[in-house]
């Protein structure tokens, strides 16, 4: 829980009656949507049609705290997704930074991102594309390399104070074989919490297959979880 949400609790139960007017004003301004607050500086990685980013922006009333990225170029996105132009335009109008061609496994060296640090870094349903059948060993290996590279880079861009890396991920095989938690632990992250992922929590979010001829088709989530990682505390 962020310091802003803690302040809200204290104000509600009366235990912080001496809080300043400025603190009370800040509490009122903080808006939550799912796991994310308007007070968070948020990096969204691997966006498809940017509908998740836009959901948060609409909930917050602004996107000035959001940096939304995709591995695709603008031209590739237009070919893939029917509504991406409108989504990106609205995001930018609301104040978001939108970045194209951002590789999740190398983003810590991106000319803009390298200067930033974030409270939340979010990658929803990472996937390299359908090169082999989903349960094929080669496909699993490619996806493991993707999440490992992402976690390593996200760790560099994370704020040290209560920063979290969120990966929403399908559960069950073959997805459990990606060893997400083990990958995170090996690079100095610890699992803080897991939460069931519900698309209903994010109105307008439309997960896409993102690859191949049916890139704009819906990606069926099934049972899914958001893994929340933090920097491992030194002992």
TrEMBL record:
Biased composition (Low complexity): 1-21
Annotated spans, Disordered: 1-24
Pfam families: BMT5-like
Organism domain of life: Eukaryota
InterPro entries given in the database record: BMT5-like (IPR019446)
Gene Ontology CC terms, in alphabetical order: cytoplasm
Domain (25S rRNA (uridine-N(3))-methyltransferase BMT5-like) ranges: 43-209
Gene Ontology biological process terms from the UniProt entry: rRNA base methylation
GO molecular function, one term: rRNA (uridine-N3-)-methyltransferase activity
Protein name as it appears in the record: 25S rRNA (uridine-N(3))-methyltransferase BMT5-like domain-containing protein
Annotated source species: Ambrosia artemisiifolia
Source organism phylogeny: Eukaryota, Viridiplantae, Streptophyta, Embryophyta, Tracheophyta
